[in-house]
Specification:
eight-stranded mixed β-sheet; Arc Repressor Mutant, subunit A; about 40% helix; four-stranded antiparallel β-sheet; Aspartate Aminotransferase, domain 2; about 500 residues
């Protein structure tokens, strides 16, 4: 197949109709200058004279005069029946010397919000804008090698072949209706969430959900109770919406409502991760959940329930969602498929307290990105409807339990008094508490130099000192990788202890 010749773009030729210089001379000079500067390349085809005259809004005779002069001087040549081309060989003495280009220093207001250390761990912030390298003990990553990609690809192939073309147009910004119905059925059965599909909005991961909630409901200077320690993404969304953050300590039963009631009598929002507090790891007790709901209702406050990894509970009976216990219509529920399936899917969901609240959220979602990708939603719907989703969760629950127990045993055996594991019956990470003399940020930095990822607990703290400690993910790594990671961490802690 012959190579297609690129045609000279007319957008680069701008004539000045107010100038005293004849138009044909302007056109001649612009083409000649473009050739000599190297912007127009040898062998490049010029549009026909009719196209030139139409696009530049000049007479055809003007174009012909310019072309004739360029042909005489050897810059272009005509081929009968094939058009006009820029000459491939122009003597070097005619070529303009390339001037050294200098980039002007542009003054602009420095964006500070998402680069500000006040938001949270700088390493984590920058991790979110780069490609992840899967390294122990990276947190929040499922076992990708155990995902049933064969079943997923079968669904893709089947639906890609028979899907009506109309499905690829603009769709409802709240999401693909069959997917919302499948999610509602799943949540009702497995998370005791009270909802219908009409209350659900499909989002591109939980972080987008947090951002949309803050932009729709949060007014400037609204009081927002955040768990302390806290997920930095929620903190960033609150700061972006100019809300005021009120740190509330977390204990082994969850967010401390007594402290909140005493110190923050009239909050507007409460953010919580009741199933598995991030990052500390505690699970909110039933009595604490009831107390939180009463406190929110008394103060006319919204509760944002981030249920990011509730599927993975390894002991005891499953706890119902906070939303499922809510009789006051206070809870906005967030779920994500990034943790249970794979992060690259970029799909999650919001469950709003009422259908009446959906419209403003749908409007903002449409302004943000119009809609989540439709094909991925269709594939995920089939994946859920055909039973692959719940089957995969059951399999991963057993696998993660096994990996968690293995890691804890390795840490106890190899690290002894250097790291005390905080026990937890749920989630995708554990917290290892370090001796008081340790600096967990420096330990994290030293580990990073040895290609090991452990997150310093202290950097998630808003106000109340916690740690020193390390947040360690385990779900994405087999026993050999976990064992290797423990050995590297052992060297890091011993090196730090001696220093």
């Amino acid at each position: 197949m012959s190579k297609q010749i690129e045609e000279l773009p007319l957008v680069s030729i701008q004539l000045d109709f107010t100038s005293e210089t004849p138009l044909y001379k302007q056109l001649y000079s612009l083409i000649r200058e473009g050739i000599l500067s190297g912007r127009f390349k040898g062998g490049q085809k010029l549009p026909g004279t009719r196209t030139f005259s139409t696009e530049l809004k000049v007479s055809r005779n003007t174009v012909v005069q310019a072309f004739e002069q360029l042909i005489i001087e050897g810059y272009i040549s005509g081929k009968i029946g094939a058009g006009t081309y820029i000459t491939n060989e122009i003597p070097d003495k005619f070529l303009s010397k390339k001037k050294t280009q200098t980039v002007a220093k542009i003054k602009f207001k420095k964006p500070s919000l998402f680069l500000d250390k006040k938001i949270g761990p700088v390493d984590l912030i920058y991790r979110n804008i780069t490609e992840d390298k899967i390294t122990p003990f990276q947190n929040g990553l499922p076992s990708l090698e155990d995902f049933p990609f064969k079943s997923w690809l079968k669904i893709i192939n089947k639906n890609g072949t028979y899907l009506p073309h109309l499905q690829f147009g603009y769709k409802n910004s709240t999401g693909y209706e069959p997917l919302k119905e499948a999610i509602a059925a799943y949540l009702q059965t497995y998370r005791a969430v009270n909802c219908t599909s009409a209350q659900i909005i499909i989002i591109n991961g939980s972080q987008q959900g947090l951002d949309i909630i803050c932009r729709v409901l949060l007014k400037e200077n609204d009081k927002v109770l955040l768990e302390d320690p806290c997920y930095f993404g929620m903190k960033a969304s609150v700061l972006s919406a100019k809300g005021k953050i009120y740190p509330t300590p977390v204990d082994d039963e969850g967010i401390n409502i007594d402290y909140a009631a005493k110190n923050y009598p009239s909050p507007d929002f409460i953010f919580t991760t009741p199933s598995h507090q991030f990052p500390y790891g505690s699970t909110m007790s039933i009595s604490r959940r009831l107390k939180l709901l009463e406190y929110a209702n008394k103060n006319d406050a919204w509760i944002i329930e981030d249920d990011y990894d509730s599927e993975f509970r390894f002991a005891g009976s499953p706890l119902p969602s906070l939303q499922g216990m809510d009789k006051f219509g206070r809870v906005i529920y967030i779920g994500t498929f990034s943790k249970v399936l794979f992060p690259g899917l970029r799909l999650g969901y919001l469950v709003l307290p009422s259908v009446e609240m959906v419209n403003p959220f749908a409007v903002l979602k449409s302004i943000t990105d119009r809609q989540s990708p439709i094909f991925e939603q269709i594939v995920l719907t089939k994946f859920i409807e055909e039973g692959h989703f719940t089957k995969h969760i059951r399999k991963m629950r057993m696998l993660y339990k096994e990996r968690k127990e293995f890691l804890i045993e390795e840490l106890k055996r190899e690290l002894g008094n250097l790291l005390k594991v905080k026990e937890s019956d749920a989630g995708m990470h554990i917290v290892g508490l370090l001796p008081e003399r340790f600096n967990d940020k420096k330990v994290s930095d030293l580990a990073k130099e040895k290609d090991l990822i452990v997150y310093p607990l202290s950097e998630y703290v808003l106000k109340f000192k916690r740690g020193p400690g390390l947040v360690m993910g385990y779900t994405a790594f087999n026993k050999n990788k976990l064992k290797e990671g423990v050995q590297i961490l052992k060297k890091v802690l011993k090196e730090f202890s001696i220093a």
